[in-house]
Design brief:
By secondary structure, the chain is α+β, with helices and mostly antiparallel strands. 31% of the residues lie in helices and 24% in strands. It is built from 7 helices and 9 strands; from the N terminus they run H-E-E-H-H-H-E-E-H-E-E-E-H-H-E-E. It has a 6-stranded antiparallel beta sheet. A 3-stranded antiparallel beta sheet has the order 7-8-9. Strand 1 and strand 2 form a beta hairpin. It starts with a helix and ends in a 24-residue tail after the last strand.
Amino acid sequence: LEPSDFAEVSSHELAPGVQFQDFAPLVWQVLRHEVYGVTCDEYTASLAGDSATQLEACIEAMVGQFSEGGGGGFFFFSSDGRYLLKTLAPREQRELLRILPAYVDHLQRSPRTLLSRLYGCYAITMHGQTRGFAVMASLFHGVSKIHEKYDLKGSWVGRSMRGMLDSDREADGARRPEATIPAASLDNDLARKVRLPRRLAVQLAAQCARDAELLRSLNIMDFSMLLGVRLVAPAAPAAAGGASCAATVEAGAARAAGAAGAAGAAGAVGGTEGVEPSPS
């Protein structure tokens, strides 16, 4: 890749008055192919779907945010659920493109990174409005079921879902917008330790340190780890003490949320197969 590749912008007119921009297209193509192992055809098929109906649904979900004078963003899955499409504010998009060379270098040297796996950066202009958005991997795609989700920042200050809900109810008797309530539990809601095999724990800690160092070098300090837990029943009864459900770490990822606006995550770090546990 050449420095000029990171500054390239490819523009296409999709329809009269509808402009599509692809930022650093060759860079993302190299990243998808060499690091993620995803071909152009596979990527396009995931976004467009395998039928005209799926493609139309995807387009309608996006176009619906471009009503005259509308200022909303969008956040939705690709047709097969493999990717997330998320709006980027202009500042976030500029920052993502600024850090792109360092991001690509990091992923090429550290393919097991826990940072969000980004697949492309785009913009659509219609009705006189421009929306920038990124495509990123959906962390839990392909996992049968996640029973618990945690968004961890390593802080205990105000990091409780119950506390947020309580303060929400007390705020002048009016509920805050639903978007302010996180979709995952927070640090203080994690009431037990997550135990991993020592080798995996050492690898995970080392990778987190490398990822955090990259974020530090880019002056990004607002990031968290998305942790998914799937409860699985033992394949056979225990020899003594009876059978019990085992909490298994299914996947975890550091999420760079600050300037880059990367709110997705990818990078499975562990997990075991098993049957669904009983309600008890």
